[in-house]
Amino acid sequence: MIIHRSSNRIIIAAPAKVNLFLEVMGKRGDGYHEVQTVLCPIALFDQLSFEPLDGGAIDFRLRLPALPHVPAEAPDRHIQPIDPAWDIPADDRNLVVRAVRLVQQALGTRRGCRIELTKSIPAAAGLGGGSSDTAAAVVASLLAWDKWDRKLAHQVCAEIGSDIPFFLGDEQRIGLAVATGRGEQCQQLVARPPLDLILTHPSVGCSTQQVYLNYVDTAKKRSFNKIVAACETGEPKKIGAELFNALQFAASGLTTWVDRQLRLFATCGAPWAAMSGSGSSCFAIIDDPSCETLVRRAAADCGLPRVYAAKAWYGDSIEHQEA
Fold this sequence. Notes:
The protein is α+β, with helices and mostly antiparallel strands. It is built from ten helices and 14 strands. Strands 1, 2, 3, 4, 5, 7, 8 and 10 form an eight-stranded mixed beta sheet that branches. It has a four-stranded antiparallel beta sheet with strand order 11-12-9-13. The chain has a two-stranded antiparallel sheet with strand order 6-14.
């Protein structure tokens, strides 16, 4: 995340992420799945503005992009009548509001705030937009109330969602990380490979719960060691060759859009591709700028409403930005 102070406001650019690697190790006793994943933040940002106010109320305002037209007749039986990318609660159900309430409770403060969240990262995509926004809200509230505490921030984030702590980075950096447990245990990597990505997202979302219900466990598990080693080389081709997502097959059983996006990348000369998270967004690592033009044209032809070009993004730690 990128942190700015403007007068008494905290403004945070909250990045999306892609999963360069995701393996499901098995189901845990608490109902969650044990995972091993390599997460990479990317330069596709939401913006969260946080202004402290007297009184305990949270004034939350949500700003969405112009909604695209969703065809009444779609070639996929799982299409929703409302584009799930922007079907985001604008009230107390939003995780941003829940996160700030938890911070209020933890600090015992009676101070409130005005929050404006401007969305660019689609929901139901596997890009971590909601998680990144939540982490940004936790950080903004602690900084604005002069109570920054990394341990508390991690505790609140982990309580709300498995992949939220990733967006906090560590005391040195925000960047590539290996996440284990249910995704909340993150180890930042030193490697910062330069990656150019092209991402697509259909008008069909994937429910994380449904994807995991559709997942069929396998005895043979892949290790993240190869892709970590590839990241250390900094060579996009080597990283692309190791892309892997164990949930990809499960998600493709829920919507044909997963396979269709991957085929689109291949036909446009971008074979190093994978689904991100539990879908439905897919991404490709590209080394030829002409691929972006080809993907955009092909996406328009097949009814994909969203295409994003984004680089891997690496930033300074929260502590360094506030120093």
